[in-house]
Design goal:
This protein is of the alpha+beta class. It has one domain. It is 20% helix and 35% strand. It contains one helix and four strands; from the N terminus they run ββαββ. It has one helix at 31-45; strands spanning 2-5, 9-14, 49-55, 64-72. Strands 1-2-4-3 form a four-stranded antiparallel β-sheet, covered by helices on one side. The termini are far apart.
């Protein structure tokens, strides 16, 4: 797993997430991962931040990539 900082977000790059292993799907599948990250950040930071899956292994991308907004949701 790798965390990369961009101007307006963080990119969480995960090449080994178990939910994507050996599965195919025409759409993102990491809903549990997204929910865990959103709730964990809200618990630790005190604000909710939007997490969006922008690439996913289940459609043959090299990694699951989650975009974590730096801007807190209202």
């Amino acid at each position: 797993m790798k965390l990369q900082e961009e101007d307006d977000c963080f990119l969480l790059i995960d090449r080994d997430y178990f939910e994507s292993s050996s599965r195919t799907s025409p759409q993102p599948r990491c809903y549990m991962y997204i929910g865990m990250l959103e709730n964990l950040m809200e618990w630790v930071i005190g604000h909710r931040h939007k997490v969006t899956e922008i690439k996913y292994r289940s459609v043959s991308d090299d990694a699951d990539i989650l975009k974590i907004s730096k801007k807190a949701e209202k």
